[in-house]
Amino acid sequence: MYEPFHKTNTMNTQSFSISGNLADVWKKSVYPAEIRVEYGVIQSIRRLDPAASFSHYILPGFIDSHVHVESSMLVPSEFARLAVVHGTVGTVSDPHEIANVCGLKGVEFMIDNGRQVPFKFNFGAPSCVPATLFETAGATLTSADVRKLLEKEEIKYLSEMMNFPGVLFKDPEVMKKIAAAHALGKPVDGHAPGLRGEQAREYIEAGISTDHECFTAEEAIDKLQHGMHILIREGSAAKNFEALIELLEDHPRMIMFCSDDKHPDSLAEGHINRLCAGAVAKGIDVFSVLRAACVNPVLHYHLDIGLLREGDPADFIVADDLVDFRIRQTYIDGLLVADKGNTLIRPVPVQRINQFDCKELTVADLAVTTAEYPSDNGLIPVIEALDGQLITNRLDLPGKQDGLNWVSDTENDILKMVVVNRYHTAPVAKCFIRNIGLKSGAIASSVAHDSHNIVAVGADDESIAGAINLVIREQGGVSCCSGENRSVLPLPIAGLMSDQDGYAVAKAYTAIDAMAKAMGSPLSAPFMTLSFMALLVIPHLKLSDKGLFDGDRFELL
């Protein structure tokens, strides 16, 4: 095991050679070779006799080209410990989750914690804090703040520009942020779900170079035609791989792979290696797959990550094959960081950072009167959650009344959902949602994109209040409450991340996820889906702490 790693004062002086079948992405060929590494750099690559026989392959390390590390519920150092086992050597990481809670201090926390391990985090400057004016966040980052971040060497790009209306209408603050990135020679990430035609062209021509929100091939092709790079996302909630993967065959230089948001249980099982295996199984050329997984992110974001060339940092992986991508070893700067399914990165101490100031709720706080919630002939607006998607639909369905109150209707799967302001005491926002599917009890989470107020849904008000109060007592977490059966996974770092061992967090999350499903939810990832029900920048109907939000009109109902 290695001692905690400090990039500022540690140099890898190890020299070694490794041989195997080299997957040369540049020459699109596989041949036996010997790689010589000195001081963390590839000094030479020597072709061996073609008759040399090896049972393993050496290839560039994988890169997650867009991920919010916070969504793994792990601090960066713990995320790295799990990711390297699957051959991931670096990420393009947007820290806007913690920035929405803790501002610049949150971004600095992510950079400082990530520095302590041998892994190549490449953080962006969050462009939308808060994401909208229709919710309460814990911080605001002005264009001046964003400029200061972009001037840092560690900040590689301007993070996803979610405020696409601001781009289209040339909002001065939005345009200043984009201009600052361009002036410093750093790319600008996009976020424009469903944007097509002339609006897509205008958005791209503002200097925005990527999008990870396409959910149809037609939308992605529209954006590719205007020169935008498309990131194929396969996360714990949003899964667009099946819809988009065929595009890689015709656009190998314009496609990258990402997870966006990945919960700890699924990170423990696999990462970008899973997308590579899935793409090869679809018949996609393996070198196109490796371009998307390894090469394109390095070239687009100008990353200091090696690509198996002489003079490159010794960042590479050893795999059993180029089909299933089972990883034997992972090297970063010449250090062996994962071997035979085990991480060799040690945990590091974590200093807690948070912002949480709200009181526990009572059942009375959750009442929804027929007078305060919109209704037309007994029909009420209902959010329709979609498994595997961040978008939602608006339904108008018959509501269930108990006296003068609207209540959850488990028989028709119309459940009460609420958002509680975590930053100060305020009235509770309430609505109704379909497809969460709980038959009893409630679940709650302080992971609620992007402002991370507390979101909860349940079959009855007692359970909803119980689940929320479990989260409040821990100053952040995810919880289940069903009668006397109660469970909470504490997330004391900004209410988003644990300070515990990553594998232990993955195990605890698996258990609480199973509890939510046992209460009736058919969703593949109930907590992840719930966390996006307050994400106003994804249409069509969402709930913020200020009320029900129409994503098409971009206004509160």
With strands numbered from the N-terminus, the spatial order across the biggest sheet is 3-2-1-4-13-14-15-16
CATH architecture name of the largest domain: Alpha-Beta Barrel
Our Rg estimate from Cα atoms comes to 23 Å
What is the CATH class of the largest domain?
Alpha Beta
Please, what is the average pLDDT? 95
The N- and C-terminal alpha carbons lie at a distance of 55 Å
Number of helices: 16
Instruction: Report the strand count.
Output: 30
Q: Give the oligomeric state.
A: single chain
Under CATH, the topology of the largest domain can be stated as TIM Barrel
Labels describing this entry:
disordered N terminus, 8-stranded mixed sheet, 16 helices, about 25% helix, alpha/beta, about 550 residues, TIM Barrel, single chain, 2 domains
What do you see in this structure?
This protein is α/β, with parallel strands linked by helices and 557 residues long. The protein folds into two domains: 61-308, Alpha-Beta Barrel (TIM Barrel); 363-556, no CATH class. Helix content is 26%, strand content 27%. Strand 26 and strand 27 (485-490) form a beta hairpin. It has 16 helices and 30 strands.
